[in-house]
């Protein structure tokens, strides 16, 4: 879909096949099953060859741990894992910064294939290096938009903004609009927008009633075409 | 400060003086007063020469506008502006994506000086181009950490995580720890973490009582050194 994405940033990597062959030959490629953790090292560059990667973080929640309020479960707080977005096929990712949140990556779907290289390896492919850096520029801008939606006070606004941004970036067209090709649990959505599974379920019902979101096939999230167009106006 | 920043990403731009001279000569440099809007065009690259830039977004809040709940003021919702972060001296910024949130930039302090160029201009300085792109990689990672903190359910955790991240990145050392060299209103903080000015004021009091944050001089935000070290551990 990418209705709002400059075509410059959505283009596939030109030298992709050459890179994939190189990675295969140098044992720098591996396939993961759904929800398997992808081990990631600082200083390496990763590329999603097939499937989709889910970025998450483990938050160390120190304020409420210290406050010791009886209503707050420490065990629950300590395990809070935030969904930070997808990395689709053809896209790069890396993990540099670590503290106070540990960033991690998981295969979001079965048969997710990832290859990796040192940044120096890219010296052999200067044009590709530029495309990778442009892809990071684009991802950075998307995260600014994401931060914009999370700055909103009302959870329903954060939720709708979040869903629109995700489907804008990764959505596939169908007769009723655009759908997100991967499933996302209400708990995962809640972890991204600072809310709970229960609240997300309730607000999703409200958004569906208002016709702002839809479900496609087996419960995939979808947005009517006119909602996206309204956003573009 | 940058206690958690790889030195690779915190280094000043080597060819900075040459770029600044070039910008001066080609009338690509301008100084702004505090809170003056910096006009930014898609496709151009901006560099902060002096001072600090504040990135914000205007959210188009469509879900709660449609819901027409009496408790929600439409005028207020329509003007919701989210604080998205600072760009400090020596750092680049750009604005590509626009919808559904309009990103904008303001001078955060007086005498903020910004220069700009086309991306093609960087072809003359390939090494500098690489540093700019590495700076964007670093900014992207910081935004992932920021998203991590905003995924937390409790506002006090989002608030403390937000303050720690800001001070980690921009803080200056003093005898009591590290302080943020620029002021930030409680309303601006609220707009970043999905909360209100009133709630931020209340929770800041709580964090100060717990010794997790401090005030430096005329109300600048500060964090004791041991809190930062605890986060690094």
TrEMBL record, chains A, B:
<dbReference type="GO" id="GO:0003700">
    <property type="term" value="F:DNA-binding transcription factor activity"/>
</dbReference>
<protein>
    <submittedName>
        <fullName>cAMP-binding domain protein</fullName>
    </submittedName>
</protein>
<dbReference type="InterPro" id="IPR036390">
    <property type="entry name" value="WH_DNA-bd_sf"/>
</dbReference>
<feature type="domain" description="HTH crp-type">
    <location>
        <begin position="153"/>
        <end position="226"/>
    </location>
</feature>
<dbReference type="InterPro" id="IPR018335">
    <property type="entry name" value="Tscrpt_reg_HTH_Crp-type_CS"/>
</dbReference>
<dbReference type="GO" id="GO:0003677">
    <property type="term" value="F:DNA binding"/>
</dbReference>
<dbReference type="InterPro" id="IPR012318">
    <property type="entry name" value="HTH_CRP"/>
</dbReference>
<dbReference type="InterPro" id="IPR036388">
    <property type="entry name" value="WH-like_DNA-bd_sf"/>
</dbReference>
<dbReference type="Pfam" id="PF13545">
    <property type="entry name" value="HTH_Crp_2"/>
</dbReference>
């Amino acid at each position: 879909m990418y209705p709002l994405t400059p075509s410059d940033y959505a283009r596939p990597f030109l030298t992709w096949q050459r890179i994939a062959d190189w990675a295969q030959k140098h044992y720098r490629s591996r396939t993961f099953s759904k929800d398997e953790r992808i081990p990631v090292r600082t200083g390496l560059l990763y590329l999603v060859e097939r499937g989709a990667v889910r970025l998450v973080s483990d938050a160390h929640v120190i304020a409420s741990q210290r406050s010791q309020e009886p209503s707050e479960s420490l065990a629950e707080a300590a395990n809070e894992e935030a969904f930070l977005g997808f990395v689709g096929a053809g896209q790069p990712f890396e993990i540099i910064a670590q503290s106070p949140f540990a960033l991690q990556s998981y295969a979001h779907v079965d048969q997710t294939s990832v290859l990796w290289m040192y940044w120096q390896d890219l010296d052999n492919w200067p044009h590709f290096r530029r495309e990778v850096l442009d892809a990071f520029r684009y991802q950075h801008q998307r995260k600014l938009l994401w931060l914009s939606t999370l700055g909103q006070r009302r959870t329903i606004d954060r939720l709708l903004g979040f869903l629109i941004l995700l489907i804008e970036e990764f959505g596939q067209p169908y007769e009723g609009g655009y759908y997100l090709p991967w499933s996302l649990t209400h708990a995962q959505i809640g972890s991204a927008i600072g809310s709970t599974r229960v609240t997300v379920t309730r607000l999703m019902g409200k958004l569906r009633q208002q016709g702002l979101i839809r479900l496609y096939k087996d419960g995939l999230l979808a947005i009517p075409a006119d909602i996206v167009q309204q956003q573009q106006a």
